[in-house]
């Protein structure tokens, strides 16, 4: 009886009060359920008369709750206007922006397209053959180590792993086609590194491959030189330093004159005036042969760069983690260019 009156009197002023009502009466440990529990232990005689009262009480509580809920739902946060002015202009669309890595990838692709390179794609889950063995990695090479590679499945002679570079796409391309090849391979790659401002467990690369008759190191240099002028502006200087990759011989790393201080010295280039942007070299004849290509007849060059590194240089971004945090304050600073 006491509760029935309470329900009748209930006249909430806010949706919070309606919620409090629900919690008091209607949840699993609420009053309605409690009374039904007590009901179980009364005598059969009483049950007959009480049952009806109890059911009515339950219905009353539920109906009241529903009615009150509707009252506040239709009130909503914004009071309904009697008449909308239909001549008012609409609210304008908010456009999203392109992710900086997508912007830079697109720029890189466009430049190489002008030189006749096509875009090739391959799986992110790779086998040992395409990621390492075909690329001339010796069996005990440290890059195969658990510390660098995320292995998915151990498999006799051909483990399955997340690709550590997009060079695997070069192998697939050469295995499945005939020279000449002229392609770039943008894609995500994975390495087992602790996440910090300067390293991440995944990042993005663009690799390139050019295989034909009489391809020389001069072709490699001129192609990359042109690329840098297009991407970073005329007058950007390049230098090649000898390096080592299992799949190229000779190999080099390419530096450009620091885009921030223009060679004057700054924290980005650690006062050297130069920043490394990619690895490159002439495709090792072993790799060509592993992919079924006659290394007597054909030669080629390959290169690979990290998109994050290039984006950092172009936009002066100092923390890699920004790329994957999805913070709109960061992302909205970039163009909405489609
Ligand atoms: N695959 C190399 C890397 O991931 C980059 C590279 C590609 C170097 C092609 C030389 C030639 O570091």
UniProtKB/TrEMBL annotation:
Molecular function via GO: ATP binding; magnesium ion binding; phenylalanine-tRNA ligase activity; tRNA binding
Domain Aminoacyl-transfer RNA synthetases class-II family profile: 104-313
Enzyme Commission numbers on file: 6.1.1.20
Pfam families in the record: Phe_tRNA-synt_N (PF02912), tRNA-synt_2d (PF01409)
Any GO CC annotation of this UniProt entry: cytoplasm
Main location: cytoplasm
Gene3D superfamilies reported in the protein's UniProt record: Bira Bifunctional Protein, Domain 2
Key words, A-Z: Aminoacyl-tRNA synthetase, ATP-binding, Cytoplasm, Ligase, Magnesium, Metal-binding, Nucleotide-binding, Protein biosynthesis
Catalytic activity field: tRNA(Phe) + L-phenylalanine + ATP = L-phenylalanyl-tRNA(Phe) + AMP + diphosphate + H(+)
Swiss-Prot/TrEMBL GO biological process terms: phenylalanyl-tRNA aminoacylation
InterPro entries given in the database record: aa-tRNA-synth_II (IPR006195), aa-tRNA-synth_II/BPL/LPL (IPR045864), Phe-tRNA-synth_IIc_asu (IPR004529), Phe-tRNA_ligase_II_N (IPR004188), Phe_tRNA_ligase_alpha1_bac (IPR022911), Phenylalanyl-tRNA_Synthase (IPR002319), tRNA-bd_arm (IPR010978)
Cofactor descriptive note: Binds 2 magnesium ions per tetramer.
Cofactor: Mg(2+)
Matching CDD domains: PheRS_alpha_core
Compartments it resides in: Cytoplasm
Binding-site positions, Mg(2+): 249
Family listed: Belongs to the class-II aminoacyl-tRNA synthetase family. Phe-tRNA synthetase alpha subunit type 1 subfamily.
NCBIfam families xrefs: pheS
Quaternary data: Tetramer of two alpha and two beta subunits.
Name this polypeptide is given: Phenylalanine--tRNA ligase alpha subunit
Organism taxonomic ancestry: Bacteria, Pseudomonadati, Bacteroidota, Sphingobacteriia, Sphingobacteriales
Gene name per UniProt: pheS
């Amino acid at each position: 009886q006491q509760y029935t009156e309470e329900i009748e009197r209930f006249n909430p002023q806010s949706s919070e009060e309606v919620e409090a009502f629900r919690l008091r009466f209607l949840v699993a440990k609420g009053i309605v359920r409690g009374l039904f529990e007590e009901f179980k232990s009364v005598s059969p005689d009483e049950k007959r008369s009480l049952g009806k009262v109890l059911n009515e009480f339950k219905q009353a509580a539920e109906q009241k709750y529903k009615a009150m809920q509707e009252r506040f739902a239709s009130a909503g946060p914004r009071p309904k206007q009697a008449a909308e002015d239909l001549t008012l202009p609409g609210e304008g669309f908010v456009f999203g922006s392109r992710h900086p890595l997508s912007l830079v990838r697109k720029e890189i692709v466009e430049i190489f397209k002008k030189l006749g390179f096509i875009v090739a794609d391959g799986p992110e889950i790779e086998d040992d053959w395409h990621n390492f063995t075909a690329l001339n990695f010796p069996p005990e090479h440290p890059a195969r180590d658990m510390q660098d590679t995320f292995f998915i499945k151990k498999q006799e002679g051909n483990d399955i792993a997340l690709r550590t570079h997009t060079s695997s796409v070069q192998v697939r391309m050469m295995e499945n086609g005939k020279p000449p090849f002229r392609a770039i391979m943008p894609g995500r790659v994975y390495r087992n590194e602790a996440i910090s401002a300067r390293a991440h467990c995944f990042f993005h690369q663009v690799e390139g491959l050019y295989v034909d008759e009489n391809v020389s190191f001069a072709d490699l240099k001129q192609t990359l030189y042109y690329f840098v002028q297009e991407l970073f502006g005329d007058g950007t200087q390049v230098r090649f330093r000898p390096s080592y990759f299992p799949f190229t011989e000779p190999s080099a790393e390419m530096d450009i004159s620091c885009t921030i201080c223009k060679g004057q010295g700054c924290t980005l280039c650690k006062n050297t005036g130069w920043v490394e942007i990619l690895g490159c070299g002439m495709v090792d004849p072993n790799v060509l042969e592993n992919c079924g290509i006659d290394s007597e007849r054909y030669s080629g060059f390959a290169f690979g760069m990290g998109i994050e590194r290039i984006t950092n240089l172009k936009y002066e971004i100092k923390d890699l983690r920004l790329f994957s945090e999805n913070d709109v304050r960061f992302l909205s600073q970039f163009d909405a260019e489609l």
